[in-house]
Write a structure and sequence with these properties.
Blueprint (H helix, E strand, L loop, with lengths): L2 H14 L3 H16 L9 H15 L6 H7 L3
Length: about 80
């Protein structure tokens, strides 16, 4: 099946959806893909906040060296 046929099949499947929750999920997925392919955008709000806190801690020099982290993990 070529790309145009795939698109038409997808449009028809979307038109057949009656579940508003599913429509919102599809809309969110399409709008996210259009604006960015950044992995950070796919994280939950809590995960994003955790990453930002870790960056702030690293900026303040509160992290540990990579070698020490690996040793703690036994790697």
């Amino acid at each position: 099946m070529d790309i145009q046929a795939e698109k038409l099949a997808l449009v028809q499947a979307i038109l057949d959806i009656e579940d508003i929750g599913l429509i919102k999920k599809v809309k969110k997925l399409v709008s996210k893909r259009a604006k960015s392919d950044d992995w950070f955008d796919d994280l939950t709000e809590e995960q994003q906040q955790s990453v930002m806190r870790a960056i702030e801690q690293a900026d303040r020099g509160e992290g540990i060296p990579h070698e020490e982290a690996m040793a703690r993990l036994g790697l």
